[in-house]
Amino acid sequence: MTKLAVTHPDAPDKTVSTDKLFGFKWHTQVPAFSTRDDHVPELDPDYHFEPGVTRAILAGFAHNRRVIVQGWHGTGKSTHLEQVAARLNWPMVRVNLDSHISRTDLVGRDVIKLQDGKQITQFQEGILPWALSRPMALVFDEYDAGRPDVMFVIQRVLEAQGKFTLLDQNRVITPHPYFRLFATSNTVGLGDSTGLYHGTQPINQGQMDRWNIVANLNYLPPEEELKIVLAKAKDMAKQKDTLKTMIAMANLTREGFKNGDLSTVMSPRTIINWAENAHIFGDIHLAFQLTFLNKCDESERGIIGEYYQRCFDVAL
Q1: Three-state SS for 258?
Q2: Measuring CA to CA, which residue among 177, 89, 188, 184 is closest to residue 133?
Q3: CA distance 27 to 17
Q4: pLDDT score recorded for residue 47
Q5: Is residue 120 helix, strand or coil?
């Protein structure tokens, strides 16, 4: 760790090395904060980082690169961003770009307030100008599901030094030197050709070109996923063979999902819940039903049963 000469009152005050915090060596020293505030995500000490994606995210923090993390759902894209920010003590806010997020939510709106017993109209800034003026990492989740009018608002700030103009206020906001912008998506902006992600749409390629780094985070190799599950489900430490079979089962559901045979997929979080429930109930098969099977469409349970019998040689 190295102390930084602070050039801005809200600037990071130290640099950290990646080998101690993230488990791999990198030539870049990453800026970080010594103290935490309420917007810093909770730290998960057992979190397992994927080095390639972690480097991409760290480049975003260290060099003010716009980073979008793409991959299948349930792979932990948002969690990966949060856990990097947690170790840097970097404040972070996530915004889910669902159909209810409007342009005024991002930019702001006039609201009526009572002041000295009188009604007055006052501008209430949205999340974008609020975050831009702070040392804040702003994450747009489900970026490829955003409405077109919302996406064009975001496009204004995708340039590294892109200023944001509040037309209603005749005010130009210059981004804070340590404002950072990230996003997560299931597609790479070309639309969903698989039919698996309803509600996603093609993204203006002029806008996609403004993202400096596109990182891909998909399901990890079984041996890496085993490390993640063991870190969380410590009660299963002596049952590694069982855990390997559980991961094999999860991978079958993922292949079925990619092929369009299933609409529900097992994420690493599902396996961890399954392992924890198996310890609680003392029955791994009952735990599977309670953790995953009961969430699935009845028409697909036969396929899942076949997968399960292939892995455990047990009929559900």
Answers
A1: helix
A2: 177
A3: 8
A4: 85
A5: strand
Report how far residue 258's alpha carbon sits from residue 293's, in angstroms, rounded to the nearest whole number: 18
Max intra-chain CA distance, the chain: 74
Q: Which segments of the chain are extended strands (E)?
A: 2-3, 14-16, 30-32, 67-70, 92-96, 108-115, 118-125, 137-141, 164-166, 171-173, 180-185, 213-216
Can you tell me the mean pLDDT for 240-261? 92
Q: What is the mean pLDDT of the chain?
A: 84
198: its two tokens? 């309803």
**What's the rounded Cα separation, in Å, for the pair 182 and 203?**
16
Which positions ≥6 away from 182 have C-beta within 8 Å? Answer: 57, 60, 66, 67, 68, 69, 81, 137, 138, 139, 140
Which residue type sits at 211?
Answer: W
64-82: per-residue pLDDT in tens?
999 999 988 778 899 999 9
Q: 């469409």: which residue's tokens?
A: 297
Can you tell me the distance from the alpha carbon of 212 to that of 68, in angstroms, rounded to the nearest whole number?
8
For residue 119, the cross-strand partners are: 114
Distance of CA 221 to the CA centre of its chain: 20
Per residue in 178-229, pLDDT (tens digit) is 999 999 988 754 444 444 454 456 666 767 888 899 999 988 889 988 988 8
From the DSSP assignment, how many helices (H) and strands (E) are in the chain? Answer: 12, 12
Q: Which amino acid is at 229?
A: V
Q: Residue for token digits 């559900």? A: 316
Distance from chain centroid for Cα 32: 20
Per-residue tokens: 87: 């170790």
Instruction: Say what the pLDDT of residue 167 is.
Output: 62
Amino acid 25: pLDDT: 87
pLDDT for res 193: 45
